[in-house]
Amino acid sequence: MQKSNISHFTANCITKLFGTLPDGKQVFSYMLSNGNGMEVTFINYGATITSLKIADENGGMTDVVLGFNDIDDYIDAFNLPSAPYFGSVIGRYAGRINKGTFTINNDTYQLNKNHGVHTLHGGNSGFGRGFWQMKQLKGGLNPSIVFTYTSRDGEEQFPGELTINVAYTLTENNELLVDYTATTTKDTVINLTQHSYFNLDGHAQTVSGQELLVNADEVLRLNEDNIPTGEFIAVKDTAIDFNKVGYVPASIDTSFVLKNNDEPAASLYSAKTGLKMTVYTNQPSVHIYVGGNCFGSIQGKESASYHTTSGICFETQNFPDAPNHAHFPNSVLRKGEQYNHKTKFAFEKAK
């Protein structure tokens, strides 16, 4: 699709036309940069991160997230047998909801089912396909951008009109801050996350051999459909005990129960580039995913051929299916309250 030249520039912020949706709405890309040369680019389709470039130990710039060059590729990816959700904000409820149903205030809601008999990542469309408005763009030191989206009452059969703001801030310390807030007109459930696939060797490489730490002693026990049973499994002396450094597994789809929000949730390190990413959050879980949503047939940006170990997701969030487990952390947002979710991705050269 034909792109325009730069349409807007402010200090540390560049805006370009990225493409046009089938309904004629224009999607723009917004690039923030800091004084260290770090650059992060977003589009207002899905409030998506399309690129994150950072100086590595080898003197180059490494793009550490998977993505596409064109809006049509993002649209088409949602029609794959299992959509990869590259870089998008996930909602209204990240993860699985058992049989797509839950109860609030004695009212039972049946959601749209998009994963067999279950609901995954918000339903048939979800927020990753949403057209978000760019609400605020701030340049200078610690540049930031705010996207907003209104999910109508009954969208995907969820109750309440939900208004969401997602603020991305790039600090001079090479941190990407992600702050989510939301309010609702009716009591509802909510669980937002960011679904970027990271690769510290570069988006066209493999995450195999990169080092992983996770600050968790337990994971959620899952049934055969990857639905939480409500029980917890200790990770000690298992293949998924990442309290000590381990290599990124070839396949994982697991919700880790975080021990302490004052400590890092997880970290990733590449000996090849010397880059380290540390993840912080105020959420009770980080869902770590590597695997099946890249089929060896997805061509990403810069003609990269994405495959099952192209990237690793750190989905900071509440537990999947929390609305159906009273002992899980609260997932209900009441009318008159505000949802607040904070996550930080901090980058450094650690060689």
UniProtKB/TrEMBL annotation:
One GO biological-process annotation of the entry reads: glucose metabolic process
Which PANTHER family does UniProt cross-reference here? Answer: ALDOSE-1-EPIMERASE, GALACTOSE MUTAROTASE
Naturally occurring in which organism (per UniProt): Flavobacterium rivuli WB 3.3-2 = DSM 21788
Q: Name one GO molecular function term.
A: aldose 1-epimerase activity
Instruction: Report the active site residues.
Output: H195, E315
Which residues does beta-D-galactose bind? H195, S196, Y197, D253
What CDD domains does the entry give?
galactose_mutarotase_like
Q: Please name one Pfam family that this protein belongs to.
A: Aldose_epim
User: Pathway, according to UniProt?
Assistant: Carbohydrate metabolism; hexose metabolism
Q: Which Gene3D superfamilies match?
A: 2.70.98.10
Q: Which InterPro entries match?
A: Aldose_1-epimerase (IPR015443), Aldose_1/G6P_1-epimerase (IPR008183), Gal_mutarotase_sf_dom (IPR011013), Galactose_mutarotase-like (IPR047215), GH-type_carb-bd (IPR014718)
Q: What is its EC number?
A: 5.1.3.3
Swiss-Prot/TrEMBL catalytic activity: alpha-D-glucose = beta-D-glucose
Which protein is depicted?
A: Aldose 1-epimerase
Q: Which GO terms describe its cellular component?
A: cytoplasm
Family, per entry: Belongs to the aldose epimerase family.
Assembly and partners?
Answer: Monomer.
